[in-house]
Write a structure and sequence with these properties.
Length: about 775
């Protein structure tokens, strides 16, 4: 065998042994770092101790500046870039000094050997030194010089429980490594050899002397520009231990729990916006303490990127008395009236309403559910835009009954409402009044969809956010109309004195107050931001002062004025799919020949209804005005045509109950055979007779010892004067059509019937139990 062959064979054996040793003796696991939550610009928002209770913050390669590299390598291992983990010359020199007792005793450790020792701390013995050498060569085989230097700078000790140059830079200088001055950089470079003797904040004078000595040495070696060295020598050392950053504690905890073991989590928050939102919320709620209000939560969303730029879960994470660690952004609460904009948007798209269309606002029984407006009053009839602006409950429930619960909750599920999705099968008409669960995060995301032409995209909390997957909730036309209505400033939920303020922001916003005044909401948006505010108590305690208008909106306005005061001034423009038309002022419907008063209203071509207005109805009346005729009984002469208001039966009944002037058409011709046979039909037939109390299929529990009674009431057509009540098909009582009749029903199933003086009959069945 030739010498070349034997050499190759020997080299192969050595390589094989090295590979075998590498598999048997693998590299130690990566160090456990302190989880850091970073802001959008890379600054540290929040830092946590690592699992071993040390501050070991990961230094990224980009944070290792040339000045830091030069200072560390020159001081620790000037031949670092040239050796293979072990410096043979340094070992021989160190051995000679140690054996002869000349000079300072050293171990000739390279940076790579120090990394090996820091990864696996052991007692300083000759055997362990040999292991460090082998491990150092193994590290050199697996990692680049930059990665080894990065490991070193992440592991070097700085006293107490601080490890790594980034931890020291943040905790002592409140700056990341790449923002340090030359003097600060050299300060951090000289401490690792003596972390117990050179403690920043305690031995500053000694550290300053040692720093300047090394700066003079670097000047002699011409490693840095002379002026930089001169400036560094003049820089005072004012270092002390600072607390770790703790901005956005709720979001930080949320992200760290969702990404266990990840050292660096890049969030979408902007530090300035986060700090401002925290300060505003904290100072605002402190002024409310005397009113029994202790908490607030805030979410700020960038509408263009769908990223969260500020996240305030509570006003003080460290306050256990107010349950400060509860995350108010994610907490499920009653949303009050904040879902109404979505409902009316869906109704616009389905052609059920337009902004000027008139809706009934009268006491109504929806199969046992009797909603009330917030102020306990009804207005009779209101336009859709007024119903939304004034957040009226009864019209909203009426519209929801037409849109459909399934359609409404299905849209909420599309918008990420998790509690609604969970409870969908149990939700009813009360959903629109806050009878469901929602979080501030979900509601703010929903309003951000309104700011994005009705398209919803999940909110991003981490960076880069990626391309959002958008879902259309509303058409751009419906979203614009809702925005236009919510931007009106003549409204009851404007905070006291806000209209006189010069700094009222131009936003579209909606308030909400939950039952019992436990939750106050105010959510607003412009083209740039959507901001959601919740104010209340995490224990669910209500407060008489707690309303969205008076408590939540002032904070919302402060946030907009602080975060977007000098922002873009563009406002939303109506989409091309929207158009105008003339409508009747009385009903908001397409006018007919009996509609002299008209106005302009938006509508959605191809979607909005084209029903003709019939608010006035032509009636044939006798010459003396005492009777009306249908086509079957109109005489050949002796009659005239008159217009009478054609009100809904429930609106007519409400107006009369309130003593409002109402013009009823005369009773129908008593000699008409169709009426007497109970068979009045055709175009002249009046609207349906309806029993408004008691509710159909309802169960009533009465106490036998008390004189409890049930209310009988109905909604009848305008020409009806008298109604007749029957209980179990037996006549009970005759009464005016608008009268409220009370009676004591028998136990068991009870059939209640009502007949009007035009021969129409309607009945309901209820179950009565006695205790």
């Amino acid at each position: 065998m030739s010498k070349v062959a034997r050499s190759l064979l020997g080299l192969g054996l050595l390589i094989g042994l090295a590979l075998l040793a590498d598999r048997i003796w693998p590299l130690p696991p990566a160090p456990q770092y302190s989880p850091l939550v970073l802001a959008q610009d890379g600054t540290v928002l929040h830092a946590y101790l690592n699992p071993t209770q040390k501050w070991r913050m990961k230094t990224e390669l980009a944070e290792i500046t040339p000045a830091l590299q030069t200072a560390i390598i020159e001081k620790e291992d000037r031949y670092f870039r040239y050796h293979f983990g072990v410096n043979p010359l340094a070992i021989v020199q160190a051995a000679g000094r140690n054996l002869l007792g000349q000079g300072r005793t050293t171990g000739a450790s390279t940076i790579t050997m120090q990394v090996a020792r820091l990864l696996e701390p052991k007692e300083r013995t000759l055997g362990n030194k040999l292991r460090e050498m082998l491990r150092a060569m193994q590290l050199e085989a697996h990692l680049s010089k930059a990665e080894i230097l990065q490991l070193y700078l992440n592991l070097v000790p700085y006293g107490s429980n601080i490890e790594g140059v980034k931890s020291a830079a943040l905790l002592y200088f409140q700056q990341p490594p790449d923002y340090l001055s030359l003097a600060q950089t050299v300060t951090l470079a000289i401490i690792p050899n003596r972390p117990g003797g050179l403690v920043l904040g305690k031995n500053n004078a000694q550290i300053l002397q040692e720093r300047n000595r090394w700066l003079a040495y670097f000047q002699h070696q011409k490693l840095f520009p002379a002026q930089d060295i001169a400036d560094a020598l003049l820089e005072p050392l004012d270092a002390r231990r600072h607390p770790a950053p703790t901005l956005a504690p709720h979001l930080a905890r949320r992200l760290v729990l969702a990404r266990p073991g990840v050292a660096l989590i890049h969030s979408t928050l902007r530090p300035a916006a986060q700090a401002k939102a925290e300060d505003l919320a904290r100072n605002y709620v402190r002024r409310l303490a005397t009113q029994g209000i202790s908490q607030a939560a805030v979410l700020v969303v960038n509408n263009q990127t769908h990223t969260v730029e500020a996240y305030v879960g509570s006003i003080d994470f460290q306050d256990p008395s107010a349950q400060g660690q509860v995350d108010g952004v994610r907490a499920v609460r009653s949303p009050g009236s904040t879902l109404k904009p979505l409902l009316y948007g869906l109704a616009l798209d389905r052609g059920l309403v337009t902004p000027k269309m008139v809706l009934p606002d009268v006491p109504t029984n929806f199969q046992g559910f009797r909603p009330e407006n917030f102020d306990k009053h009804c207005q009779g009839e209101v336009t859709m835009e007024r119903a939304l602006t004034y957040s009226l409950n009864i019209p909203a429930v009426q519209v929801l009954s037409e849109v459909g619960i399934d359609k409404f909750t299905g849209t909420l599920r599309q918008a990420g409402f998790q509690q609604v999705a969970h409870d969908a099968s149990r939700l009813g008409l009360s959903t629109i009044l806050g009878g469901c669960g929602a979080s501030l995060e979900e509601l703010t995301g929903l309003y951000s969809a309104l700011a994005n032409e009705g398209h919803y995209a999940p909110l991003a909390l981490t960076s880069p956010p990626g391309a959002p997957v958008k879902k259309p909730l509303l058409s751009p036309a419906a979203a614009y109309l809702i925005t236009d209505i919510l931007a009106q400033r003549t409204r009851p939920d404007l905070p006291v004195d806000a209209a006189a303020s010069r700094h009222l922001p131009r936003i579209a916003w909606k308030t909400g107050t939950s039952y019992g005044r436990r939750d106050a909401w105010s959510i607003g948006y412009n083209r740039q931001y959507t901001i959601g505010v919740w104010v209340g108590n995490f224990n669910g305690q209500g407060s008489p002062a707690l309303t969205g208008a008076d408590v939540a909106s002032p904070l919302l306005f402060d946030l907009f004025n602080s975060l977007a005061y000098n922002g873009k001034a563009e406002w939303f423009a109506p989409p091309a799919s929207l158009d105008f038309r003339l409508v009747c002022t009385e009903t908001g419907l397409v006018p007919d020949e009996n509609c002299p008063n008209q106005l302009i209203d938006y509508y959605l071509p191809g979607a909005s209804g084209s029903q003709r207005c019939q608010h006035m109805r032509e009636v044939l009346v006798s010459a003396d005005g005492q009777a009306s005729y249908c086509r079957a009984c109109v005489p050949a002469s002796g009659y005239r045509r008159e217009l009478f208001p054609n009100l809904r039966p429930e609106v007519l009944a409400f107006r009369e109950s309130q003593g409002l002037p109402t013009r009823r058409q005369p009773p129908h011709n008593p000699s008409c055979r169709l009426v007497h046979s109970g068979d009045a039909t055709g175009a002249d037939a009046a609207p349906l007779l309806a029993i408004t109390s008691p509710a159909a299929h309802a169960e009533y529990v009465l106490t036998a010892s008390e004189k409890q009674q049930l209310l009988l009431s109905c909604a009848a057509a305008g020409e009806v004067r008298q109604v007749y009540w029957y209980v179990n098909d037996r006549f009970y009582k005759a009464a005016p059509a608008t009268a409220r009749v009370f009676f004591r029903p028998p136990p068991g199933e009870v059939k209640i019937s009502c007949a009007d003086d035009h021969g129409r009959t309607v009945d309901v069945r209820v179950l009565v139990r006695e205790l």
